[in-house]
């Protein structure tokens, strides 16, 4: 099985090695046979950095060299390290001088293209150095603020995820989008992405609420966004109007039948559980939370949105789930959506059954995982996918240009490149486009694929 996996992964790399005529705007040291890899190879993130370096080596050479030492330089190349073959030149961002020193060393070595660094902060430190040198850089961050011509971000960005979700939700008839997001960089990025996506698709402007930490702030925020008190008042007013047309004694009997302690049962919450305890007994002057068990009518109107984007994880997400149930934001009326981060703990999201998130399809990376395990005897983390993709891209462009460098026209070719998670493409402004799948959270936890990623095919070897 290991041999089959390595063979399949070799075929994936071969499919990435498209031909095509190298255009103008050459970047990188002409004819350079070294690929600079800038990662944390010592310190607290050494394990992750070494794993990503191993993935890049696997893409470039088909083998994984020994672990890199604290100075950041490992054995060059791969099997045989034959003359003329691409070489890996590794530099450690965790030593004195950090990413800037690692970048200086890579440029001094004449590396033709830079893979890394790992974080948005490190990318911001050295992007100007890369551009000044005319050396293309493929950073592993998902921080879109770092994207610029000549500096590409390879991470799956919030805007990629959100646009895929909005597209799928619009296709099922959703028209009114809203977001309830943490007031942090991820939340802000998700909110901005939602606004842009709705505008681009001709949808109404999204309603976006950013919340502070704490259960009380979350409960109040969801109540405000969902217009809970107004929905209760409207429904109770409609019920009262109907009762006024009846004789007083009959109306009283219908509103308060013998032995009744509440009007009627509330609608089903997102997790299908009885939410009376979590919703009852609270009332504020602002109408943050009424007392649903005592005042909610048989059926509330839908919230003023039919698709809701969330961005929380951990305890804040649990508080949000509780607040959605208390304020009658039910899955039969609203499509809940969330970030791809949910994939890591989908087994614990039963309370969000029916919710969607967008992410690469893990089925696409099986060959890579098997080949990586065969070489290193350990399972790669998802970030290793990016390092493999970057290495495969560098190899593909080197083949396409006959080793003449890394021209912008070839780096940004429309056909893209074959990657671990599917075909991806670089855009002239420094972003990366990827096809993502949609997954739906299941009642018992876990998720299932509900919309596969669009299929694109990278050019075959020698194609233009």
UniProtKB/TrEMBL annotation:
Signal peptide: 1-16
Disordered, as annotated region: 69-89, 249-290
Gene Ontology biological process: amino acid transport
Key words, A-Z: Amino-acid transport, Signal, Transport
Segments of skewed composition (Gly residues): 71-81
SUPFAM superfamilies in the cross-refs: Periplasmic binding protein-like I
Protein family according to the UniProt entry: Belongs to the leucine-binding protein family.
UniProt-recorded name of the protein: Leucine-binding protein domain-containing protein
Lineage: Bacteria, Pseudomonadati, Pseudomonadota, Alphaproteobacteria, Acetobacterales
């Amino acid at each position: 099985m290991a041999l089959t996996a390595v063979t399949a992964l070799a075929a994936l790399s071969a499919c990435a090695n498209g031909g095509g005529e190298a255009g103008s705007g050459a970047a990188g040291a002409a004819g350079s046979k070294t690929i600079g890899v800038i990662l944390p190879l010592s310190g607290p993130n050494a394990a992750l950095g070494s794993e990503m370096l191993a993935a890049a080596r696997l893409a470039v050479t088909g083998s994984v060299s020994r672990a890199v030492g604290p100075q950041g330089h490992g054995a060059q190349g791969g099997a045989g390290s034959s003359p003329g073959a691409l070489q890996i030149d590794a530099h450690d961002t965790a030593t004195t001088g950090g990413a800037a020193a690692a970048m200086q060393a890579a440029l001094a070595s004449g590396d033709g293209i830079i893979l890394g660094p790992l974080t948005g902060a490190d990318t911001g430190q050295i992007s100007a150095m890369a551009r000044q040198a005319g050396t293309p850089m493929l950073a592993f961050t998902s921080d879109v603020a770092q994207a610029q011509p000549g500096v590409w971000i390879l991470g799956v960005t919030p805007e990629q995820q959100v646009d895929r979700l909005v597209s799928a939700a619009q296709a099922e008839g959703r028209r009114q989008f809203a977001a309830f997001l943490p007031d942090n960089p991820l939340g802000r990025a998700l909110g901005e992405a939602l606004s842009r996506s709705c505008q681009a698709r001709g949808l109404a402007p999204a309603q976006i609420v950013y919340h502070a930490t704490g259960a009380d702030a979350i409960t109040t925020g969801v109540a405000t966004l969902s217009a809970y008190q107004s929905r209760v008042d409207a429904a109770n007013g409609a019920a009262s109007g109907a009762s006024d047309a009846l004789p007083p004694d009959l109306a009283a009997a219908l509103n308060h039948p013998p032995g009744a302690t509440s009007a009627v049962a509330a609608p089903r919450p997102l997790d299908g559980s009885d939410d009376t305890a979590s919703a009852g007994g609270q009332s504020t002057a602002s109408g943050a939370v009424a007392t649903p068990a005592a005042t909610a009518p048989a059926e509330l109107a839908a919230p003023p949105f039919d698709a809701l984007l969330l961005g929380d994880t951990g305890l804040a997400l649990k508080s949000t789930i509780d607040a959605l149930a208390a304020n009658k934001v039910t899955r039969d009326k609203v499509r809940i959506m969330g970030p791809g981060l949910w994939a890591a703990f989908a087994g614990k999201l039963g309370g969000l059954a029916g919710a969607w998130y967008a992410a690469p399809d893990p089925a696409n990376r099986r060959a890579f995982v098997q080949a990586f395990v065969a070489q290193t005897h350990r399972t790669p983390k998802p970030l290793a996918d990016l390092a493999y993709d970057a290495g495969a891209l560098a190899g593909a462009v080197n083949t396409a240009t006959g080793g003449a460098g890394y021209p912008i026209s070839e780096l940004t070719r429309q056909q893209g490149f074959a990657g671990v998670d599917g075909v991806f493409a670089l855009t002239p402004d420094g972003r990366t486009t990827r096809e993502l799948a949609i997954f739906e959270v299941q009642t018992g936890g876990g998720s299932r694929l509900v919309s596969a990623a669009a299929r694109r095919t990278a050019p075959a070897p020698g194609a233009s």
